[in-house]
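Subject: sequence -> structure tokens, single chain

Hey, anyone have a minute? Need the predicted structure for the following. Not urgent.
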Amino acid sequence: MSTEPPIELRAHAKLTLSLRITGVRDDGFHLIDAEMVTLDLHDLVTVTPGGSGLTVVGPYARGVPTDDRNLAVRALDRAAAITIDKRIPRGGGLGGGSADAAAVLRWAGHPTDAAGLEQAARLGADVAFCVVGGRARVRGIGELVAPLPHVDRTVTLVIPPLHVSTPAAYQAWDRLGGPTAPGPNDLEPAAIAVRPELARWRDLIGDATGRTPVLAGSGATWFVHGEHSNALAALGNEGAEVVAARTVPGST
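Reply:
Had a minute. Here:
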């Protein structure tokens, strides 16, 4: 048995600030041109070398798979036990599963060259960005990650009590004829077509803040720039999570 001590890693959420869909590959995968940032909101991943199995605890542990459906399990290529303290709300498009997998890959010394990022993206489209972290332009199907200078900003996230299937949102985008959204996220009209309730949440957030919220990727998270936790606190009574978060320079 290994005598190495457990290692605690931060697995930072990602936020997609803008998303343009630039094409569709022959295999059906959509090509994107996006700006993504790393947030200080994070899970804690504890890796114990020489152990085995995955344990999930924390406020958002319910429903998280502990078998090979979990990206962190699939990212592990050596004997180790993993405990994930889930602090990133699930189902909001904030990349919690991808962040956990990326933390394991970084611990294992996974390369961040083009080949390494392409391999990471095979686990999940957001994993490559989460390995690099910070602020980046992300293209291809998520494997092309070009770091950008850090910009310190605060955002307020509203995660409604609903889930949007990313594949379903992209399929709806295809059915709608590939719309370009008036705002920064081309996937927003398609996500609303899949889950019309999203429009109600958009309007509630806009009315409370006087700002036009942006859908994060396929949702269901909406965000507005700046600190608006007080203005949005009443949405918690309707089951939403309201979280103020800041961007951070990297994922470590």
